[in-house]
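Troubleshooting: if your tokenizer reports a length mismatch, compare your output against this known-good record of 482 residues.
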Amino acid sequence: MGNTLNQHDPILIIDDEERVINAIDMTLRMAGISNIITCQDGRKAMDIFSENAVSVVLLDLTMPNISGETLLGAIKHEHPDVPVIIVTGVLDIDTAVRCMKAGAIDYVIKPVEEERLITAVSRAISFRELKKENLALKEHILTDKLENPTSFDCIVTNNKDMLSIFRYIESISKTSQPVLITGETGVGKELVAKAVHLSSGFTGEFVAVNVAGVDDNIFSDTLFGHLKGAFTGAERDRNGFIDKAAGGTLFLDEIGDLSPQSQVKLLRLLQEGEFHPLGSDTPKRTDARIVVATNKDLWEMEKNGEYRKDLIYRLRTHHVKLPPLRKRLDDVPLLADHFLETAAKALKKKKPTTPPELSVLLCTYSFPGNVRELESMIFDAVSRHKSKILSLDAIRGRIRETVGNMDGSDESIDANDLSSTSEDNISFSRKLPTLKQAAEFLVKEAMKRAGGNQTIAAGMLGISHQALSKRIKTMGYNKQKN
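Known-good structure output:
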């Protein structure tokens, strides 16, 4: 039947048919849920909420005295955080869509299939727990954990490692010392740099400059400015971005691409707080705070003679190392929902209803492009969206395209994933398994990670849905599961 569901508050079943209530009750108890309240008279349902902290509602649509749709409206008005699953005997798309718009999280068709019911309830419990965690997190942040939580509003996360980074940022943000932000492309280094600036309380501007591919002359002119006549075309004095960032923060992105000559000038700026505009012999001073970011290994570059060691020491007075998205997959559903909303607003569309398997599909992918790739993927899917339920075809296509462009290798495996300390690394006892045993293990693991969705599991294994289905039948996996 699947794993036991973790649920403490009761599940409320509202249905006028006793046999339906008994069937649902038995299915839930077999799945490990014993805290169940039943109600056969819809008119008494709201009284139950006053005496119980209901976790999930299973609501019949067709009942005497009061309709399920009317009761749904009352529940969502009085208890908006309680997820409601519609149980209906007729698959009426218009009614289902109407209920979803009214706040229902899912719907199940009678006669109720056990696996479908458990999946729906499991998703609803997880959804409520996530909302409770978010609420607790906000309350936590607003008390003694962060002095200025709004500084981090632009970063969507509920990941404990990211929240630990927030606390570190706040502890170092008010100093004038430089901050080095490292992490893979697309993890959100500039957003973190902005959070550093906002947490600092500095009154000056946040000025961002990308120094990738910039030669020394352009670097000097862009940052330090020039005097009239410093070079051909310099018809008047011009201040650089360092002047614009006075009293604030100067953010230099892609700092690993800086030329050796520019490295020397940046080092002087950090050491002395001074710089020379092009064409000037008189140094100028600055109080701008320097924050830099790179996706490169500066220490490895230093070993190869490509980067100054003394500059690295100066840059990394404070070091913020951001985890890749594959290391914070618990944030994927939260980020996906955020990007769905922002994409819908940007495209002037209604936010699409998402299928239950969206989060499972996304969490089986490693996102080599990190948060930026997820944002692009969701935006593309919403731009193609036409029906009432978001199609996963565009997302599946993007995943297949990325995997295919990586020479057939598994994009989720990198050097870190293969380390001896990795939780995902396969280890064997002294006796090796047979190929058949190993294949069965992979199938079971893929099905577990895919939440029982064969299409997603087949994609993870690199085989067709039909091939996986045949292998599952051969293994007797469903019988074992039940």
